Automatic annotation (TrEMBL):
Binding sites annotated in the UniProt record for FAD: K52, G116, T140, G141, S142, D303
Any Pfam family hit: Pyr_redox_dim
Domain of life of the organism encoding this protein: Bacteria
FAD/NAD(P)-binding domain ranges (all copies): 7-317
Residue ranges occupied by any Pyridine nucleotide-disulphide oxidoreductase dimerisation domain in the UniProt entry: 338-445
Organism, as annotated: Jhaorihella thermophila
Lineage: Bacteria, Pseudomonadati, Pseudomonadota, Alphaproteobacteria, Rhodobacterales
UniProt name for this protein: Pyruvate/2-oxoglutarate dehydrogenase complex, dihydrolipoamide dehydrogenase (E3) component
Amino acid sequence: MERIRTDLLVIGAGSGGLSVAAGAAQMGVRVVLLEGGEMGGDCLNWGCVPSKALLAAARVAHAQAHASAFGIADMVPQVDFAAVKDHVAQVIAEIAPNDSQERFEALGVRVIRDYGRFISSTEVRAGNHVIRARRVVIATGSSPLVPPIPGLADVPFDTNETIFARRARPEHLLVIGGGPIGMEMAQAHVRLGSKVTVIEGDRVLNRDDPDLAAVVRAALEREGVEIAEDAMVSGVRRDGGVTEVSVADGRVFRGSDLLVAVGRRANTDRLNLQVAGIETTRTGIRVDAGLRTTNRRVYAIGDVAGGLQFTHVAGYHAGVVIRSILFGLPARAATHHIPRVTYTDPELAQVGLAEAEAREKFGTRLEVVRFDMAHNDRAVAERRTEGFIKLMVVRGRPVGASIVGHQAGELVNLWSLALANRLKMGQIAAMVSPFPTIGEVNKRAAGAYFSPRLFDSPMVKRVVGAVQRWIP
């Protein structure tokens, strides 16, 4: 048994853990990193990277089939599904060196490829190693939630951890869950030639503004995705080569393959947290505003901390704990400026408060501004006019932005910056945006906030008239 003493122990080599380990090691801190699975975690291997690679391939296929608006003949795309999966694997392989054991060892990190579990409040065991660290960061992420649906255990099904390895195209993919993962995979597969049915117990994309979600839903239905809402699954069975999904109201959906995409659960089972005095909640590890657990030597970041489950949140959390651990500075994690994006086509992005949330919080002080993509010249030129931006503004400051449309995920960056730095609408309107760009939508939306104040105001018109009479 090897006993190791170190300054910092990081458990989990996903995006958050890797960011902490790299930052600390490059500042001269002794770091031990534990990872029993794949370096890079969910994002690189089964999440963000492969899903976006698959969506990119699907977008190319869709473009071939819908080129006539540009004067180019539509073509039925010839999809080699196995080759598409080769493309996905190649994208992962190109990015993997950034997250590799070799890179982190070169940075001075001691990498141990095993799972860690607490054996006391100050020690963690991983294989034949016992590590005592001054500070510990838990960054073990999350895994697909598999609900206790009757019959599911007896039926073959995929989650995001297995679907990207499938090399045969599903003839008819049934998707349980209409959240971001389910909707993204539904669109990717229908564009690549599968029939797809999405089965959702509530409404699809139910965490998002219903006005925006309706745009995405309509787009997927136009492309051939069958969407069943208010369809609470009551059972699953396999009959020969057909999977049957029954819902509470009596409907039955049949397909060749099944994807379960109903959410995520924090990875805490292996950690033996109670021995270390670390409390958990229904969603993950209990942390304070500085991401410190009930054991003051231990922090938790990313999905396992029980909050927003996004790769960029894990990276943000890494910066918070580095400030605290390395510099002893007070650091608190906020959420008001954290964006989220569903990478369907059109994309759906949100930062800050959605309209319903903002109305509940601010009441009559809230102003809602809308600007349609159809009024953006670049969007017109590219035939991407579907969608709009909706801004929630209180006393001249944005408190939320909801965007659906082409490049919504890129457009939301500016509003995250605005919320993080408490910018005013006038500062956004003062920005000079190159023409013609999709990004000009943000400036035009800010301008739409001021338009009624300038053009519909009798007082402004009287002032302008007076100035004109006095100017020589």
